[in-house]
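Sequence and structure are kept together here, with a separate record for every protein. A complete record is shown below as an example:
=====
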Amino acid sequence: MRLARSSHGPRTANRPITMRQFLLGGLCGLAALTFGADTWGAAPSRSSDIAAQNQTAQAILAQTDRQWQFLEEYCIECHNVTDWAGGVAFDAMSPDTVPEEAAVWEEVVRRVRGRMMPPPGEPRPEIEAMDAFVAWMESYLDHAASQRPDPGYVVLHRLNRKEYANAVKYLLDLDVDPVELLPQDDVSDNFDNIASVLQVSPSFLDQYLAAARTVAVQAIGNPSARPGGTPYVNPDTSPQHFHVDGLPFGTRGGMVVEHTFPADGEYELNINDMARALWVETMEYQHTLIATLDGKKFYETQIGGEEDMKAIDQQGDPAVTEINKRLKNIRFKATAGQHKVAVTFVARSFAESEARLASLLPGGGEERVPKVRTIEIRGPFTTEGVSETASRRRIFTCYPASEAEEAPCARQVLGTIARRAYRRPVTDGELDGLMRAYERGRQGQSFDAGIRAGLTNILASPAFLFRSVQPPKDLPPGAVYELNDLQLASRLSFFLWSNVPDDELLGLAEQGKLSDRRVLEQQVRRMLADERSRTLASNFAYQWLGLRKLDEIEPDPAVFPYASNHRDIEGDLRGDFVREIELFVDSVFRENRSVLELLEGRHTFLNERLALHYGIENLKGDRFRRVELEDSARWGLLGKGGVLMVSSYPNRTAPVLRGAWILENLLGTPPTPPPPNVEALIDNQPGQEARTVRELMAAHSAEKSCFSCHGVMDPLGFALENFDGVGRWRDKDRFAGTPIDSSGVLPDGTEIDGPDDLRQALVSRPDQFVQTLTQKLMTYAIGRVMEHGDMPAVRAVAREAQASDYRFVPLVMSIVNSPPFRMQRVPLENEAEVQLSSRGK
């Protein structure tokens, strides 16, 4: 697609105004804007502000001819009306059209700033000339944006699964598994909270209604519940020879689930069959199986061993049936509410083992236990009422002592929950509707049943399920307005907590105090200090860094046996990788450190398993602890196993993937997708002399059409080549047996060799990384992908952060005070049509 319009030809009434007219003539109109103070796009209400704007305009004009010459010298040879390289023709453009073609010029800025253009292999200007051109064009774009403010528009915004579960936890003090209740959320720009891709079709809403009914029963309980069964499948398909998190110490293997019991009463546990008529590995030794409720044992039996194996051998199926009966119809009592039910095996000490010493390695011999694949919890078979639970204490702010007290109490209970769920005061009409639902549920049943019906309505209400920002009345399409305090509170809480506002934040918003800059900063600091802000690491950073893809990678056990899904040696390495990064990022955020420490931080968090994977000794146990790293290669994100594994193939490293990961996630300059006819790299073949990854890529990258991208990506990826596909350090190539070559030359001429040099090169240009992080944070905070029109605001936030040495809290404050966060545009007619059509899909 051709992105540029020709500026040649006769002047007409529709021809764009000249650059001078735009820059200088627009100042009068700019003075009339009525935007909120302390935000980008704010009206220059003082003559000094107008003078400063005029001075900026004059400086831009003064450099125009010289900077436009940059394009003519280095860009027009390819980007012209004949070749249309990349769909852009600079000889069909002029400085006058820059504001109208901001999308094109923002892309130009991104590529020149990222040293991707001019491409490697072509004549390149001096770095100073590239930086001067970028600075001039950014100034022009920023100035143009200040005269035509557009904070953007967020379409109807549904809660995603994570936000729904967090909200239920806050509203009802109930932990729910959103994966079991709700459909999977779509993703855009790596994030699952982008409004434009969160579907709101009738089928989705049906599932949210079903979830509301389920949650209401789980939260309040149901003494009239009929017996039913809930199956649970163990997500861990690997051999279960190690201690499982959440199970009692001194146990091995098994599974633990959190089950919500509807009432006090008697229940039943069923465990999958373990005995079969054929030989079953791990059954040759006797094992002690136990079942626990909240860590307290309620059942114990033995399975396997000489007697069981002899019975199976002699009797066949009848013996198998008798053995498996030990795992069925296990009765136990439980009170209403959420409890942890676990099935596991008592660990046998090495001193008790009669096996040979060779079998005493972890996961060997008698330590190998049968797999617990599934369990089922059935009931209740008898009920004894509903005990007080955490959820009921949260819900029932009052409880009637007589029939006369029921209606007022119900109105109070439902009104309190609705205010928190809707993130605003509840209208009388809304509360009347909830009371009608209560009355229908109460008819012929209990007070609790009525509240359960009202709660279902709250959880299924659009006021709860959608983060709607309604504009003030009578504003025309395209008009810009500032979010009110309640809308600001909601946007802020979903940004920092992925959750609804708490009572303190909501109360300040109801009083109209939250928009006060001092009060807002106090709230941001309070919220960042709260435990709920850890979602910025577990949710934002997890998605920003693309760690979701770890679930799709299964290391080849022939190449990386210690990191495959078979946990015989190292356990859940993939989970350890994610936990390390979450704790590391959280430490930078929570301690208000410079975000540059994400690149160069000298500490991390390890348990024994991950420490051994990194070659670090004398760290014992499963618990993660903060560790100061002596090996500089491990500093920052580039030394983290999760990053290195997610940018590798299952059987080898991938310098191209690692380079592309750095370009997209750290530098904000994702490479152009390869042409569809590009052949995949062929790995080493049997019978051929083994070659290193660098040698395999050499011929492919040498092609001129390929080198323009590979010349940028490959040096970044090769600098990390000492790390294998699962993040272990190595000095030699596994296949070729030759020393690793991690050297390269960056597009700006910087020579690097290894992760230390690469990290230093990235840190030497802090603005590039901070701007990328800012753009990602703003995308996550607002719930829409930052586009070309947002880049002036992104740059303003990043520049402001420099004054605080890029510390995290001031960076967040700048984002919260930015126009895209604090303001919104009334949708244009075509945007309103798109939103309406998306609701009907």
User: Anything to note?
Assistant: The radius of gyration is 31 Å. The longest strand covers residues 251-261. The longest helix spans residues 47-74. The chain has a mean pLDDT of 86.
